[in-house]
Amino acid sequence: MKISIERGALLKAVAQAQSVVERRNTIPILANVLIEAEGNSVSFRATDLDIEVVDKTEAMVERAGATTVSAVTLHEIVRKLPDDALVQLTDDGATGRLSVEAGRSSFSLATLPKEDFPVMASSEYSANFAAPAPVLRRLFDKSKFAISTEETRYYLNGVYMHVSESDGGKVLRCVATDGHRLARIDADLPSGAEDMPGVIVPRKTVGELRKLLDDDEAEIAVSVSETKVRFATPAITLTSKVIDGTFPDYTRVIPSGNTRKLEVDATEFAQAVDRVATVSSERSRAVKLQLDEDRLVLSVNAPDAGAAEEELAVAYNDERLEIGFNAKYLLEIASQVDRENAVFMFNSSGDPTLMREGNDTSAVYVVMPMRV
Questions:
Q1: pLDDT for residue 283
Q2: How far apart are CA 44 and CA 33, in angstroms?
Q3: Using one digit for the tens of pLDDT, what is the confidence trace for 216-234?
Q4: CA 351 – CA 319 distance, rounded (Å)
Q5: pTM of the predicted model, to two decimals?
Q6: What is the pLDDT of residue 142?
Q7: 7-20 and 71-80 helices cross at what angle (nearest 10)?
């Protein structure tokens, strides 16, 4: 194999590959990226046996072929090369080495046989549809903060993507929860997604997927089966196993009878929470909200560190209420709001609180209160 490729294109492809590779590997071949060159393009494939990413890019292919080389080492080399360098990759099957040359720099890297590289079995997908990148980006970006990191509740370690009913008909919905907070985000149902099975997309896959969604013009081809999910652009294909488990019935957690309504400027609210939480003890980070006629007092009382209080002018005309929350959870939810106003719906100091953006019901958040 012998190819010449621009450094920028090579860096982008290898960066995507090396981020999938697990750092601590007992199987040496899984630390490698499979490079396959033919025609006028080259593909870079990496896997950790749960996720597989294939990045295809244009290159001058002098001699077709394939080899595998350490993804992290190749990425480090390419990252340190000059911006406009033309990189030449030459595989010498006899010595089992890949030479990397750019300008006056040359490297010789150990390779492993391409036959040993595990390729993920292709799945029969029961649903195939296309969705604009900004739509998928919103669904996953706004829900991923609530993914649980508790390994014992593995079925919560991802985002539940499924078809659901909403007021205006069927929607494509993403839900994540860790038992303390919940995010439920809806988008119009793309054509072809009607029969999609509900799947739990793992946390790592959600992180890798984010890199495919930066281009606002891109259409993402999505394929879903009971065991796998695939997201593809013309250049990159990301295939992942889904979490084998049942996502709990989240609808039972979303309160419907909360009547006390607080409307507040989302940015002002987030900044005020951040300020008063500065003195709270790391362990609980509890912030108390005291609501009265059109005013909100945020306060923290940490006996070992100090106390803080801040008052905000808000729209609230229900009876007086005192309720406490974990500051981190409040901040994360407030930072999801794209519009000016955040609307909180309370019931009592012991019940879950609902939050949405203005009158928009396509993004709903639930947060559990704390005793303060």
A1: 64
A2: 6
A3: 899 999 999 999 999 999 9
A4: 16
A5: 0.93
A6: 96
A7: 150
Amino acid letter, 258: N
Q: Give yes or no for a contact between 188 and 171, defined as CB atoms under 8 angstroms apart.
A: yes
Q: Which residue has the tokens 């400027």?
A: 265
- Output the DSSP codes for 323-362: EEEEHHHHHHHHTT--SSEEEEEE--TTS-EEEEETTEEE
What average pLDDT is seen over the chain? 94
Q: Angle, to 10 degrees, between the axis of helix 327-334 and the axis of helix 266-276? A: 160
CA distance 341 to 353: 16
DSSP 315: B
Sign of the four-CA dihedral 13, 17, 19, 20: positive
Helix, strand, coil percentages (3-state) for the chain, rounded to 5, are: 25, 45, 35
Position 291 scores a pLDDT of 96
Distance CA(45)–CA(18), nearest Å, equals 10
Name the 3-class secondary structure at 37: strand
pLDDT digits (tens, 9 = 90+) for 274-305: 999 888 767 668 899 999 999 999 999 888 88
Helix (H/G/I), strand (E/B), else coil: 130: strand
* Sequence-ordered strand ranges (E) for 218-359: 219-224, 228-232, 236-241, 260-265, 286-292, 295-302, 306-313, 321-326, 341-346, 353-357
Cβ distance 208 to 47 under 8 Å? no
Query: Whose structure tokens read 């899984």?
Result: 30
